[in-house]
Amino acid sequence: MVFKRRDRRSLSKIALEFLYPRGGWYRAFLYVKHRVRRLPDTPERIARGIWAGVFTTFTPFYGLHFVVAFLISRLMRGNLLAALSATFFGNPLTYVPIGVISLRTGHFLLGTHFDETRHTGFLGKFAHAGRDLRDNIFALFTERDADWNGLAVFYHDIFYPYMIGGLIPGAVAGTIAYFISVPLIRAYQQRRRGKIKAKFEAIKKKARAEADLVAKRD
Question: What's the pLDDT tens digit per position in 127-141?
């Protein structure tokens, strides 16, 4: 195949590059920032897309952040590419603090608490919910009885509080990103337009000089 990688990556290498991309997170951040600033759109629309992307990272819809950011950006009439790029705000370095903030805020607002005795804490609830989902899918094609207890515990202890608790910090983080992005993007676009204009002026000046030289020779 034309676009097939010559060096096939192992599963461990794929996982490692997900946790720590080639060149480091700082280089990846600079790449995303460069791509966002060069988007051909108004600063306000790009910033609304960034708001949608940052807000999405505070939702518990892991694996669907691109879809959620896309839908929110469409509702806000933001730049869709900026929204997808801004989901980079959620990465292995930030998922833990985002999750802790969202869960604690959610349980506080709901007046509940995180029960660590059921299914051995946070990771245990994820694992138990995953096993329930797998077993229940098999139960559709076998005589095995479906058991939704693990998924119910996951929903009440993690998913629902996470979803409710992520609304406020997500909106705050998105709004901060919006007001920071607008002046930065506007300044960058103005500087870039100035550079392009200067290049055109230099080309026109050179063309006039060559035309004058040809006229003098004639």
Answer: 666 666 666 666 666
